[in-house]
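Data deposition worksheet. Section B asks for the primary sequence of the deposited chain exactly as it was used as input, without tags or linkers unless they were present during the calculation. Section C holds the resulting structure in token form. Section D is free text for depositor observations; keep each observation to a single sentence. Incomplete worksheets are returned to the depositor.
Section A, Depositor: J.P.
Section B:
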Amino acid sequence: MAAQFHAPIPELYVSYDSAQKLKLEAAELVSWDLTPRQICDLELLMNGGFNPLKGFLGQEDYDSVVETMRLADGTLWPMPITLDISEDFAAKVETGQDIALRDQEGVILAILSISDKWMPNKAREAEKVFGADDLAHPAVNYLHHVAGPVYLGGAITGIQQPVHYDFRARRDTPNEMRAYFRKLGWKRIVAFQTRNPLHRAHQELTFRAAKEAQANLLIHPVVGMTKPGDVDHFTRVRCYEAVLDKYPAATTTMSLLNLAMRMAGPREAVWHGLIRANHGCTHFIVGRDHAGPGKNSNGEDFYGPYDAQELFKQHQDEIGLEMVDFKHMVYVQEKAQYYPANEVPAGDTVLDISGTELRRRLREGLEIPEWFSFPEVVKELRRTSPPRSKQGFTVFFTGLSGSGKSTIANALMVKLMEMGGRPVTLLDGDVVRKHLSSELGFSKEHRDINIRRIGYVASEITKNGGIAICAPIAPYTATRRSVREMVESFGAFVEVHVATSLEECERRDRKGLYKLAREGKIKEFTGISDPYEAPTAAELVVDTEGTDVDYCAQQVLLKLESMGLIAA
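Section C:
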């Protein structure tokens, strides 16, 4: 078994000389600029991480994977790896054609020989692959709102690896891992998949797993794309490096995996197993709710806690890896050590800190005990996430034209500036139109672009520790959600729905716009000829009818205080 594991696996790269020649030829080809997720997928296709795939799935393989978790030839493969493109681009290319695939700086990474081009049934893909067509699932939201509507399939000719400027020495291809295991004479290797910082419980768990499997340990964290809101990979890798010293160097190694996770629970676990088998591992730790995305729209978990383990067990022979099941480790106060939750001595006190509780303690600058995590890890986490009252955030007002958004936003800005401590920027609709979006009109598409630009600027302000206050109409739920995701990767996003009724806004009609809209002189006017999709889960709803501006701004301040964003 070990011998087959460490033999090299096929890659999709051509030789160096051919690559130089192809680069020149590819310059003439139509080219597609890859998204960050597509770059992750392409890298693992080219380096053999997605072996046996030879490229992006064609329609027959795609349908088969969606429906049966297998390629058309029957090979186990749970995840559709597709190249999604825009309709405009799809109109320019035909099957049988070669196109160049470039990274975001325009460097040619590969050539795709198009074998298939089709419009997938995304609702069906969501239902089968993720278990539900529910937008609360980040990958389903990605499928419907981010991914392009047309898929291309076809074989890949790899020219060069994507460039990574960070942690280069820690990034290994499957064949580099195999060569490393071969060189050290490691025959049994247990892989630990993680997208979170490692705390003491994880260390105990990995120690036990390696001991149980009598295997060496590969800590194999994902640094491609994880769930929106996760700790960024730079911080996580610094945390892993801080913990590596606690492991015996002779039996443990760490490598980074540039994978774009889908958070697809059971199917994702099988996929992770196949990827680790390609990297030369023999065992794989599968956790409770492995790669689960959290709660669905009804507030329930998407997957059962052991669904992933069960699906993995059914297929482990085909995957070629043995599963080591994750023991939930808890700290027993009286014994001053970790135990599996089901082996705690009767009557002893169990201490545990959930992920949510850890985030709360970081947010509020509270103590994180040494039994829970290593001081080195806590130090790294505090550097990246200082207490909330020192972080940047965005307040996003949405409501009909004339609802009073700008007025409240102005009052809030002045109050925050009076408190001092952080720079405050007001991104008001008219100001943004003048400086950022002067070329845009008021069609649905242009209004969407305008809101996304506001979101981008707000996310940059938030990232750099400032406060952004936005007050556009922002009538569409999907656009507001994408702004929320942009901002939440750097700090808090506080949506305030200024819920003034249409009648009241029309009665005020300060700019005379409603009158023009009623006369048909303004097309696509929100509330009259175009819908306003009211938020259903805004952090705060304020009603301006019969209340003064100062009171409304005060409500927002109290909300910010209760969220810990401003010091009481």
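Section D:
The chain has a mean pLDDT of 91.
The longest strand covers residues 108-118.
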